[in-house]
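Per your request, structure below.
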């Protein structure tokens, strides 16, 4: 069955299959009826899709409960390996985490959201929701704002029209004019900051990473608790460390 929506062509059965996979991930595993109730689908529909996914190795069973299978790891790794830039960036993320002893991550922009592609934790790193593959709003994080600051204004407007400016904390920017003012500042100073805008008690610094043709690849960031991310460490040392790392990456990308 093919649905037509705004001139686009979507296959309904494919849409349902991926809805079921995402539902399994949301529930961290589920029985057929539980998943069907969660998604508002018929038990028979869910069972048929799960049986097919099981035969293909994309879901596994523990008793009568289905879980997302590890075969997706291979696909995820293929995404990271498909571009040379990602291979060069991964060791830099690890190096930053070791040097700062905090959490370091690299994101890309996809469909107007930020996607965590690499993540490393230092000895003092705190837990956040920056799991690989997780999608985030760009306006509320340091890495995300670094991305927005290096996209054409027309693209930024499209992203804001699509996703809005939801408030994740009391400090999240929710006004377009204020956001664009901050994006100008980010372009001028070369880095972005997140002062408890995505998570209360968490601060971060982010920088863009460009390729050899000055096209945006993604953004690096270092995040940590507010009681450590302050003073010269937050205002100067981490930004300089990130800017230096980004510069090294850009040279490697340009001449590799």
């Amino acid at each position: 069955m093919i649905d037509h929506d705004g001139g686009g062509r979507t296959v309904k059965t494919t849409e349902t299959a991926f809805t079921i996979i995402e539902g399994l991930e949301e529930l961290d595993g589920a029985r057929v009826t539980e998943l069907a109730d969660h998604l508002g689908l018929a038990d028979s529909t869910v069972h048929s899709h799960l049986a097919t996914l099981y035969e293909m190795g994309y879901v596994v069973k523990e008793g009568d409960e289905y879980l997302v299978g590890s075969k997706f790891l291979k696909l995820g790794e293929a995404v990271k390996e498909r571009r040379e830039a990602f291979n060069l960036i991964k060791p830099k993320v690890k190096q930053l985490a070791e040097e700062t002893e905090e959490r370091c991550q690299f994101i890309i922009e996809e469909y107007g959201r930020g996607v965590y592609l690499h993540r490393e934790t230092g000895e003092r790193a705190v837990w956040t929701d920056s799991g690989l593959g997780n999608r985030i709003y760009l306006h509320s994080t340091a890495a995300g704002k670094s991305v927005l600051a290096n996209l054409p204004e027309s693209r930024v407007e499209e992203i804001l029209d699509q996703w809005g400016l939801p408030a994740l904390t009391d400090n999240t920017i929710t006004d377009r004019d204020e956001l664009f003012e901050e994006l100008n500042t980010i372009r001028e100073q070369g880095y972005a900051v997140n002062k408890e805008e995505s998570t209360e008690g968490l601060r971060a610094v982010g920088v863009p990473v460009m390729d050899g043709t000055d096209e945006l690849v993604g953004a690096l960031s270092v995040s940590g608790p507010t009681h450590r991310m302050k003073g010269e460490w937050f205002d100067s040392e981490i930004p300089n460390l990130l800017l230096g790392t980004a510069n090294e990456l850009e040279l490697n990308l340009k001449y590799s």
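The beta strands are 2-5, 8-11, 59-62, 65-68, 103-110, 113-121, 135-136, 192-195, 202-210, 216-225.

Regards,
D.
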